[in-house]
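Action item from last week, closing it out:
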Amino acid sequence: MYYLFFAGIGILGTILGLFWLKDMLRSPRLARIVYSELVARFALAGAAFSILGLLLILSDWAG
């Protein structure tokens, strides 16, 4: 159950790292990749994994 939370955090951290790298390198190719639909879908999946993992952790602590 922790793996789902940490997988989501890892995906979101990777995406934030890509945005930071895009700003540091000023690469047009990397900017196209970062602003692509695929990265947006990964961000949604990462957020969903994080929220579901957190809910599973809280339900385990409560019950």
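Closing note: DSSP finds three helices and no strands in the chain.
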